[in-house]
Amino acid sequence: MPDNPFLIAGGGIGGLTTALALARIGQPSIIIEQRTRIDEIGAGIQLSPNASRILIEMGFGPALAKTAAEPHRLVIRSGKSGKMIGGMPLGQAMRSRFGAPYLTIHRADLQTILLDAVRGSDTIRLAFGRNVAEIENNGPSSVRIRCDSQSASESVTGAALIGADGLWSNVARLIGDTSKPEFRRHIAWRGLVARKDWPADLPVDQTNLWLGPGAHLVHYPIRRGEFINLVAVTSDRDNEPGWSRTGDPSILQKRFSRWHTDAFRAIQSVGDWTIWSLFDRAPRQTWFDNRVALLGDAAHPVLPFLAQGAALAIEDAHVLSTEIKNKNGNLIEAFTNYTRIRKSRSSKIQSTARRNGDIYHMPWPLSIGRDLTMARINFSDHTSWIYDWQYP
Question: Does 221 fall in a domain?
Answer without folding.
Answer: no
